[in-house]
UniProtKB/TrEMBL annotation, chains A, B:
Residues 39-220 form the FAD-binding PCMH-type domain. Keywords: FAD, Flavoprotein. Pfam families: FAD-oxidase_C, FAD_binding_4. InterPro entries: FAD-bd_oxidored_4_C (IPR004113), FAD-bd_PCMH (IPR016166), FAD-bd_PCMH-like_sf (IPR036318), FAD-bd_PCMH_sub1 (IPR016167), FAD-bd_PCMH_sub2 (IPR016169), FAD-linked_Oxase-like_C (IPR016164), FAD-oxidored/transferase_4 (IPR051264), Oxid_FAD_bind_N (IPR006094). Gene3D superfamilies: 3.30.465.10, 3.30.70.2190, 3.30.70.2740, Uridine Diphospho-n-acetylenolpyruvylglucosamine Reductase, domain 2, Vanillyl-alcohol Oxidase, Chain A, domain 4. It comes from the Bacteria. This is FAD/FMN-containing dehydrogenase. Belongs to the FAD-binding oxidoreductase/transferase type 4 family. The keyword Flavoprotein applies.
Length: 476, 476
């Protein structure tokens, strides 16, 4: 059976675009190993179609053979959603050869791109045409837009521009039956039926394969300024966010929070970086103000905001970057936290969201709970406060073996954190998705009626259960 | 059978909240007649539950009896989607008693409201709390938020804030089985599964009943200014839109276009209104600039924009409203077009969208086509140019009997316009939805794979086909 399928795949995309373990010198690890090295699978084959029609033909061949398909873009996902399982029966469908920018429409403020385009290339193509593609995240140098959409990626500008979902107007999708839905609309308004676009976005390849998308573009801001502020409490950070919304309006394009311990790790492990204002404050905040007018105007707004915040006791000290280089430096500190944390040792990662108003109480309660349960535990707390999204990571107490700590405590700590998240009406996956890493947790934390609806939709669109099975929803 | 159902409904919501034609002095016309008086149905009963639990019980009772349900809010829809058919067997489920604002969360910038709340009441509740609920449309004094979400309403501020869908974070929904999905999240980020929210939004009551929603709020702008500009061509209007995006950024909260004939009707039929600048230009444009800083700042931005536009030949003349009263007056002219048009006589209405960049070519081609086919036909063209959304309405030639014209020509003119829309990659329903008025058109203009996916979802979530049958999708 698998020989016949491989033959069919080779006929579809050409033998040079089908990779198997039987190839001389075969090394499929780039496709089989997940980004965080949490799981290593074994594929029947890796197939790299060169067009939407070829993607459709691959899906039809797999469907005819009853073989499962694992769509893959840049393979930078964090929840083990884009690598095959260990069965050796799954076909990895790599989209990276579909990497054309099909069109940029300046007057419509849209660009139409193929799924395999690397995000950073799209940001640059947009900028070259005079526009901003606002999706921006750590993996942008290697992740693909198809993966960004399949996982509804978030990132650092969500507070202004929304997630990947909000940046997408239209999709081209290959269904689980190998048909092509031509939904590449550039329309801002289209009320002719159910919102299929948003259903495929965030479905992590379990309902079909996104092959192209039409994305929103924005005018390039005239200036972008960054400020760094020390805040006395998390409550103050939340109040500062409200003040920033009020004063900057849509100019507020970034609002990140960083706990003192997280910044201490950057200070310790990244000696070339000078972390400002962290020693005397429990939290620091990074703000970005994008202005359509001028740098002087942006700076005036920023200074008024910080002055008011200082007067209200929301900020104890602050700096506004004087140059682009300084601004990049401040963002670089924020982005170095995961690396510094890895240097400190293995840790238990969480990607949670909580209503912004309840974050201070959530952190106070959960910090205390974890300290009670595991004395000496260290919390690396940072994230996109503007979106209510925290990367609430847990590091072993000083001196403890991190590997042993993870093995023994990860499951219990996940339970404690997720239960707390549930008490605060939060989400156990804010921006990373479910994949297979969190699929088992969903039945405990997701509304049962919602789960039932999801299963009904999965069954309706992929009755053969061949699209990325076991991801998002555990196998029936 | 129907007697047993009526009995069950009375036990569920109380006899006083069940209305039938057998009641003494019964008049169900407010629920049975659609807003535009295109169709009059006959209900088995009108039921007004007072809570989500009662809505669920009503749906279960109807499901047990195999009776169809027609959810209804303010009954202001324009596509005959919320009134019963003529069979006398359908139950109208009126949501108007679910009209509580459940919560306003200032720090999270959200409000949680019940489906039956009138939109204007919600705008006022938000403003009282110091925030803006940006959804705004002509029917806001009587439409309900449940209906706005069920139809993914658009309106006048979509260019900045998006449609109803983009303003909603969470939903509470009663499924076709009478279960309650508790999805009232106030989270900006939640990637734990399929996007059920956006699936129910815009599904026009055919998949379930929206009973409550959590909506996004925004800071109130410090100032809102309105300008009115005469433009030499539709091309110039599109270029002016691009310039406004560039100069005002997110401050651009409104961009409406109005054709000369549309304005001439306001001039003729609304003698108390003084329509500016319309006599010498084929189109006028209404722009709104919302500013988080000050009126002086907004005015400066506006003046610079219009100056540049004037220099580039995009604007031949313009006025900026000097007061709030003047601004309201300009908007009032725009909003009087449908009324003035009705005074002129019956007409054929279209609610279409086209990629903004292609609107000038679409209008040139379609205007000429209609003139060729029906000499003397008059085009009342106006709409939300910022969203690519035109109300491209067709009025009988001078002196012709409008009723006769509609009867003889409506179907042919719809076909001509819709075919042109399809050639320009547009949508035959931008913001009004499908209802039963356009359900027959969908199979001709919607991608067949998309239609197949929609049918599969409908079958999966409402296998009994009791939720607003025949709307959006024609009966199988």
């Amino acid at each position: 059976m698998s020989a016949a399928l491989l033959q069919a795949l080779r006929e579809t995309v050409g033998a040079a675009q089908v990779f198997t373990h039987d190839d001389p010198g075969a090394d499929l690890s780039a496709w089989e190993q997940d980004w965080r090295k949490r799981a290593r699978g074994r594929a029947l084959a890796v197939v790299r179609p060169g067009s939407t029609a070829e993607v459709a033909a691959v899906v039809r061949a797999c469907a005819a053979a009853g073989a499962s398909i694992v769509p893959q873009g840049g393979n930078t996902g964090l929840v083990v959603g884009s690598v095959p399982d260990e069965s050796g029966t799954q076909v990895v469908l790599s989209l990276t050869r579909l990497n054309a920018v099909r069109a940029i429409d300046p007057a419509n403020l849209t660009m139409t791109v193929e799924a395999g385009c690397v995000l950073q290339n799209l940001q640059e193509a947009a900028e070259k045409a005079g526009f901003l593609l606002p999706l921006s995240l750590a993996a942008e140098g290697s992740c693909t837009i198809g993966g960004n959409l399949a996982t509804n990626a978030g990132g650092t500008q969500v507070v202004r521009y929304g997630n990947a979902r909000e940046l997408c107007l239209g999709l081209e999708v290959v269904t689980a039956q190998g048909e092509v839905w031509h939904g590449l609309t550039g329309l801002r308004k289209d009320n002719t039926g159910y919102d299929l676009r948003d259903l495929f976005i965030g479905s992590e390849g379990t309902l079909g394969v996104i092959t192209a998308a039409t994305l929103k573009l924005y005018p390039l801001p005239a200036a972008r300024l960054t400020a760094w502020a020390a805040v006395p409490t998390l409550d103050a950070a939340v109040s500062l966010l409200g003040l920033a919304h009020q004063n900057l309006g849509a100019g507020l394009t970034g609002f990140e929070v960083m706990g003192q311990f997280a910044l201490s790790l950057v200070d310790r492990h990244c000696p070339t970086l000078r972390v400002p204002l962290w020693t005397d404050s429990p939290y620091c905040v990074l703000l970005e103000n994008s202005d359509n007018e001028s740098e002087a105007h942006a700076r005036g707004q920023f200074e008024r905001l910080l002055e008011t915040a200082f007067e209200q006791g929301l900020v104890s000290d602050a700096v506004v970057a004087e140059s682009l280089a300084q601004a990049h430096g401040l963002w670089h500190i924020r982005e170095s936290i995961p690396l510094a944390q890895a240097e400190e040792g293995l840790n238990i990662k969480h990607d949670i969201s909580i209503p912004v108003s309840r974050i201070p109480a959530f952190c106070a309660e959960t910090d205390a709970l974890l300290q009670r349960e595991i004395p000496g535990v260290r919390l690396v707390n940072f994230g996109h406060l503007g979106d209510g999204n925290l990367h609430y990571n847990v590091q072993a107490p000083v001196g403890e073996d991190a590997k042993k700590f993870l093995k023994e405590e990860e499951s219990r700590i996940n339970g404690l954190v997720f239960d707390a998240v549930a008490r605060y009406d939060g989400s156990i996956s804010a921006e990373h998705g479910v994949g297979s890493l969190k699929a088992d947790h969903l039945p405990h934390y997701k509304d049962p009626v919602a789960l039932g609806l999801m299963r009904a939709i999965k069954q309706a669109l992929d009755p053969q259960q061949i699209m990325n099975p076991g991801r998002v929803l555990v196998r029936p």
